[in-house]
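Reminder to self: tokens first, then the designed residues, so the page reads top to bottom the way the pipeline ran.
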């Protein structure tokens, strides 16, 4: 990572695993003309999973295949009572981090430990450095940076090959989007509600309704303007490239992130249409 303690974090960058330089990936120009992103090694290491997914009859069956594979590959299945009896006390108490628990944690508090691990994964795989976690991540080092680094590396949440689990979640999401939309659609029109966006504006003004803003490296969007308006007086209408999406509501049947119809996507610089509600 190229750190300069005299510069804000938005000007820092890291190497990544998707063959697109981070400054390009985080730019508004990339969002206007996106290209597919592949995390190096994911498909090669788990080729059998995607062969199985291609044979699925519908999204429900595909999700069941994905969950079953993740449970086997990363030991996520809860042991049966008869199996617990064969495990030692320490192994019975062992906390196994999982992609599902992280998403649940994000839904409760995106600035909690789960959020730090997710932002750290984006930093590692896509090279996009976070701008905010509990507080603005400006100059380095700072108390805010120390808290973020401690949380993203804490063993309670950052264990059990959690980055590899998230690699597979992203690959599964991209597979599902390709199956559902093919090559006919490249963007989602999404909305984000906020009360604190003046400092995120890079070009233009909110009052002019069109401007460029810099969003955190991982952000939540809503599927509708009405849902987004619950989170702030300003609602930003954004065209988000599908290649930047990690989770969308139909991807994961159940309750995780579905209550607010939330889409989780990579951030960076976005040209937006601003609405005051």
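Designed residues (277 positions):
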């Amino acid at each position: 990572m190229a750190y300069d303690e005299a510069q804000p974090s938005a000007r820092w960058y890291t190497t990544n695993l998707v063959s697109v330089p981070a400054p390009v990936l985080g730019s508004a120009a990339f969002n206007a003309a996106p290209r597919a992103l592949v995390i190096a090694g994911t498909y090669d290491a788990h080729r059998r999973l995607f062969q199985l997914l291609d044979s699925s009859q519908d999204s429900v069956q595909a999700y069941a295949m994905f969950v079953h594979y993740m449970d086997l590959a990363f030991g996520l299945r809860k042991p049966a009572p008869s199996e617990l009896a064969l495990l030692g006390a320490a192994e019975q108490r062992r906390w196994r981090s999982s992609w599902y628990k992280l998403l649940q944690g994000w839904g409760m508090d995106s600035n909690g430990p789960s959020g730090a691990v997710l932002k750290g994964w984006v930093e590692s795989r896509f090279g996009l450095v976070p701008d905010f976690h509990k507080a603005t991540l400006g100059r380095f080092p700072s108390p805010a940076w120390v808290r973020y680094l401690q949380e993203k590396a804490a063993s309670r949440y950052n264990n059990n090959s959690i980055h590899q689990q998230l690699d597979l979640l992203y690959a599964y999401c991209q597979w599902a989007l390709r199956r559902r939309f093919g090559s006919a659609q490249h963007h989602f029109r999404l909305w984000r509600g906020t009360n604190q966006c003046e400092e995120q504006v890079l070009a233009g003004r909110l009052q002019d309704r069109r401007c460029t803003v810099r969003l955190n490296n991982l952000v939540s969007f809503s599927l509708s303007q009405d849902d987004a308006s619950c989170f702030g007086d300003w609602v930003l209408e954004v065209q988000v490239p599908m290649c930047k999406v990690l989770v969308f509501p139909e991807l994961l049947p159940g309750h995780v992130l579905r209550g607010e119809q939330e889409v989780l996507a990579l951030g960076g610089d976005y040209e937006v249409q601003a609405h005051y509600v």
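The first strand starts at residue 132 and ends at 133.
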